[in-house]
Amino acid sequence: MKLWLLRHGEAEPSARTDAQRNLTMHGRQQVREAAAHMQGRALQVVLVSPYVRAQQTADLACEVLGFTGTRQTVAWLTPDSDLRQALRELDSYAFDELLLVTHQPFVGALAGLLVHGHRQQPLPMNTASLALLEGGELAAGLMELSLHKHPTR
Q1: Among 136, 150, 74, which residue's Cα sits nearest to residue 106?
Q2: In terms of CB atoms within 10 Å, which end of the chain has fewer, N or C?
Q3: What is the CA radius of gyration of the chain?
Q4: Cα dist. 87→54, 92, 110 in Å?
Q5: Distance (Å, whole) CA 48 – CA 71
Q6: CA 153, CA 141: separation in Å to the nearest integer?
């Protein structure tokens, strides 16, 4: 099983609410660069935070990849989502290769939990950072970090 984790690109510093912040032009370029690392992958599902910047990130990534498969907006991928709930939700998806488009601190904490088995060592995830976790089972400490890319600019 392959779990791709993509943090949204650089966003505007403020908006009416945090959830309404848009990607900047630089953030859009960051996302295109990150998505290029997934070219040719057999993604089956893209799960996306409802926040505007994550939706825009998913739009760009899907465009770059020519992805036409299942894309779903889920409420449990926001910055402060509960890791246990996310793992329970992910258990309901039968997949070989899945992409989550989400936020810090959630994405770093999720990756750290899946790789290290605890929350004390979150994975650093800058804007538009991409990580690939692989393993036989989606459970704490049972995934291996096989790719971790940060934008070059």
Answers
A1: 74
A2: C
A3: 14
A4: 19, 9, 9
A5: 8
A6: 31
Backbone angles phi, psi at 43, to 5 degrees: -60, 135
* DSSP SS3 for 146: strand
Predicted local confidence at residue 95, as pLDDT: 85
What is the per-residue pLDDT across 78-132, written as a single tens digit (0 to 9) for each? Answer: 999 999 999 999 999 888 999 999 999 999 999 999 999 999 999 999 999 999 9
d(CA 83, CA 70): 23
Structural domains for the chain: 2-149 (3.40.50.1240)
Tokens linked to 49: 């935070």
pTM here is 0.97
CB atoms within 10 A of CB 46: 21
Question: For residue 91, which amino acid is it?
Answer: D
The position carrying tokens 């970090």 is 145
Given this model, what pLDDT does residue 129 score?
A: 98
DSSP labels for 8-19?
Answer: ---B-S--SSGG
Q: Which residues pair with 101 in a beta bridge?
A: 6, 48
| Angle, CA 89 vertex, CA 86 and CA 94 arms, to 5° | 125
